């Protein structure tokens, strides 16, 4: 398929369609499929490596991988998985759920949201969270559930479940920024009263259609220069973009993992 560069397909198995998706993609000529060893596969993870290897055996796309050798590795991680499930009481959270076709929460995000509820002693509200997620997404104009909007919408849904029956009692600044257009325009227009009355966003702060840089009145180079002035020298493009989109979160990361000026010099 990829004459100039390889095509890598990545999917999760939350809905149960992951393996079928990969088989059809292989038939279409995809070059790479992302899989996981059996103990950590399926559910909210990727399709099973051993299953896909077996499915392709004897075909023109045979991987030639040794399933017996892979199974030996999986035996070790089966015990690791059992220990993790017991330690964090995760049993039942990540079973296959075809309803993901409706609530459309990415697999990795599901596990993060479940952990947030657990940390707050609200494991029993997991199904409520799955029901709240589409409602929040509708309120904010159906943004695509990819980074960073998926995390923003997911966090807002979690807060709504925690403060039920009072929705939007606690609203993160990132959610307000998403709603007012700081990350770009959402596919569906957002109700003006929801913005002004529910989220308490001033009309003057609502952005009709512009980029993140336009919204903040700064360019990429301005953000990079601001970081340097704070002591974060030679930041990568990823660092600058993280800082531009989530300055508070990014700076907490920088402070935790790097020492200004001395240690944050990229080689």
Characterization of this structure:
Residues 261-267 have low confidence and may be disordered. Helix 5 (107-119) runs parallel beside helix 7 (149-162), helix 11 (220-229) crosses helix 12 and helix 12 (237-245) packs across helix 13. This protein is mainly alpha-helical. The protein has 3 domains: 8-88, no CATH class; 100-210, Cyclin A, domain 1 (Orthogonal Bundle), CATH 1.10.472.90; 214-257, Arc Repressor Mutant, subunit A (Orthogonal Bundle), CATH 1.10.10. It has 13 helices and 2 strands, in the order E-H-E-H-H-H-H-H-H-H-H-H-H-H-H. The chain is globular and about 65 Å long. Strands 1-2 form a two-stranded parallel sheet.
Please tally the β strands and state the result: 2
The Rg value, from CA coordinates, equals 22 Å
Per CATH, the architecture of the largest domain is: Orthogonal Bundle
How large is the share of residues in beta strands? under 5%
How many separate domains make up the residues?
3
State the helicity in percent bands.
40-55%
Order of adjacent strands in the largest pleated sheet? 1-2
CATH level-3 fold name of the largest domain: Cyclin A, domain 1
Q: What's the helix count?
A: 13
Quickly give the structural class. mainly alpha
The first-to-last residue Cα distance is 36 Å
Q: What sort of overall outline do the alpha carbons produce when their principal axes are compared?
A: globular
- The CATH homologous superfamily name of the largest domain equals Conserved carboxylase domain
> What's the order of the H and E elements?
EHEHHHHHHHHHHHH
Q: Average pLDDT value?
A: 85
CATH class descriptor of the largest domain = Mainly Alpha
Q: Can you tell me the residue ranges where pLDDT is under 50 for at least 5 consecutive residues?
A: 261-267
Q: How can the largest sheet be summarized?
A: 2 strands, parallel
């Amino acid at each position: 398929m990829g004459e100039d560069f390889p095509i890598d397909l990545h999917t999760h198995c939350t809905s149960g369609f992951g393996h079928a998706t990969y088989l059809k993609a292989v038939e279409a000529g995809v070059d790479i499929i992302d899989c996981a060893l059996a103990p950590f596969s399926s559910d909210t993870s990727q399709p099973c490596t051993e299953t896909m290897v077996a499915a392709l055996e004897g075909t023109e796309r045979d991987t030639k991988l040794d399933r017996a050798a892979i199974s030996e590795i999986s035996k070790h991680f089966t015990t690791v998985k059992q220990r993790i499930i017991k330690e964090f009481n995760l049993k039942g959270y990540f079973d296959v759920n075809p309803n993901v076709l409706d609530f459309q929460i990415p697999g990795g995000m599901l596990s993060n949201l479940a952990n947030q509820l657990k940390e707050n002693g609200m494991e029993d509200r997991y199904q409520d969270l799955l029901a709240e997620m589409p409602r929040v997404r509708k309120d904010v104009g159906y943004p695509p559930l990819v980074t960073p909007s998926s995390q923003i919408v997911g966090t807002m849904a979690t807060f709504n479940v925690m403060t039920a029956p009072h929705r939007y009692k606690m609203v993160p600044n990132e959610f307000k920024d998403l709603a007012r257009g700081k990350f770009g325009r959402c596919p569906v227009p957002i109700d003006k009263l929801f913005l002004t009355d529910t989220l308490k966003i001033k009309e003057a702060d609502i952005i009709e259609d512009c980029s993140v840089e336009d919204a903040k009145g700064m360019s990429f180079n301005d953000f990079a220069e601001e970081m340097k002035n704070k002591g974060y020298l030679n930041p990568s493009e990823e660092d600058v973009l993280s800082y531009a989109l989530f300055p508070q979160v990014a700076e907490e990361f920088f402070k935790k993992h790097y020492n200004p000026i001395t240690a944050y010099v990229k080689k």
